[in-house]
Every structure is written in C-alpha cells, then in structure tokens.
C-alpha cells in the first residue's frame, strides 16, 4: 500500500484548519513561535519542548491570540479558555488555546490534526463535513454524539489525559482531513496521548482522508 501522512518518514504540507470553537477558517496553517513574549507569561506550563516529545499519538495544547477588536472573535469565540491580555504597546488581545494530536514527527516540526468542538455543536455545525471526523473521548468516559448530529466517518478514539484539571467536552471531534504543521519552537503544553487500542483508528482515518484528496494534475495544466 502507498505511504500515507501517518507514516513517520512522510513529509506533508499543512492545510487550513478549523479553529477550536467556531470552526471558521484561519489564515495560519503553519504554526511557528509567536513574536513577543506576552503569551509565555500567561501559563508557565507552556514551554518549548525537546523534539523527541512530539511522538505520534501525543496530545498538546498551543496558546493562540487574536486582536480584541476582531469582529469574528466577538461573534464566535475562536479559542477555548479565552482571556484578555495587553502587550507592552497597549494593544489588547484575546488569548486561549487549541488542542492537537501528533500524527508524525520530523526534523524541527510535526504534523498534527486538531481537536475541535465547533462551538459546542460538534458536527452539527453548518459547513462541517461529518465524514471527515470522529469522536474523541477520555478514558473512563463514554463516547457520545450531540443530539441530531449526523453519523461521523470514523470510530471514536479514546485518549488518556495525564495532567490534573484537563478534560475534553463531549462535543470534542477530530478532523482527520485537516493536517497542520507545528514547529518545535512553539511553546506547548502536553496533556495526554491517544491510547494504544485507538491509535490504529487515528492512523487509518488520516490515511483514508489523505487518499481521498486530489493528487493528480488536470491534463489542461500540462504543456
């Protein structure tokens, strides 16, 4: 079988992905270190980790900021755990986090898929493609769909959260078709990992979504 993006030595570009809560597109699909040090002082648990920690199956959070005056942010909170900070120039920002599952690790960066809630609506949110998603739930809990949510494309996967106070809401979903490149120089907070019994589901889901993408040029582009 052909290699897929879950293979450790497979290099793949990132794609635009949905934001943590509202599912709106973000222009950044490649996450590198933030400019400025305001985010680093919010929570000391977020720090630059050794590249070896970004093992496939690991789950971590990334702090994310957006201007306070963002119209989108006023209508739909785009990050979880949002709070307001002010930088040294007086500009105010909303800061929160997003969660990711590592799919493959590489030199200086890793390829991940996001865990999303879509504003607590799961895959009921308009525009979301249920067949590209699966439920993600904590060990000791039961996977549950939101009332009226369409059938999802993949089996639910179980994760083990290792940090006190961390939890996943029942609306948490993994979008296996949205690959995101995250640099190792980003401050992150590792919170858990996909359980061994569920990892194969994740690998197969990512590879299936990859196979369904268009990989061939149209003849009209040939010269």
Automatic annotation (TrEMBL):
Residue ranges of domain DUF6590 in the record: 53-203
Name of the featured protein: DUF6590 domain-containing protein
Polar residues: compositionally biased ranges: 8-17
PANTHER family (alphabetical): C2H2-TYPE DOMAIN-CONTAINING PROTEIN-RELATED, DUF6590 DOMAIN-CONTAINING PROTEIN
Pfam entry (one): DUF6590
Stretches for region Disordered: 1-38
């Amino acid at each position: 079988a052909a290699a897929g993006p879950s293979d450790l030595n497979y290099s793949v570009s990132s794609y635009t992905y949905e934001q943590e809560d509202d599912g709106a597109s973000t222009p950044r699909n490649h996450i590198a270190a933030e400019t400025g040090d305001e985010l680093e002082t919010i929570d000391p648990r977020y720090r630059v980790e050794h590249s070896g920690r970004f093992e496939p199956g690991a789950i971590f959070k990334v702090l994310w900021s957006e201007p306070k005056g963002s119209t989108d942010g006023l209508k739909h909170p785009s990050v979880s755990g949002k709070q307001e900070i002010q930088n040294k120039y007086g500009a105010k920002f909303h800061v929160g986090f997003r969660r990711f599952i590592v799919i493959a690790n590489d030199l200086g960066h890793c390829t991940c898929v996001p865990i999303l809630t879509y504003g607590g609506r799961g895959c009921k949110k308009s525009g979301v493609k249920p067949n590209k998603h699966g439920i993600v739930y904590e060990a000791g809990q039961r996977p549950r769909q939101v009332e009226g949510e369409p059938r999802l494309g993949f089996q639910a996967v179980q994760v083990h959260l290792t940090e006190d106070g961390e939890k996943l809401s029942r609306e948490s979903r993994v979008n296996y078709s949205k690959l995101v490149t995250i640099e190792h120089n980003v401050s992150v907070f590792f919170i858990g990992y996909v359980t061994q019994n569920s990892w194969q589901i994740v690998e197969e889901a990512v590879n299936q979504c990859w196979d369904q993408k268009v990989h061939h040029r149209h003849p009209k582009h040939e010269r």
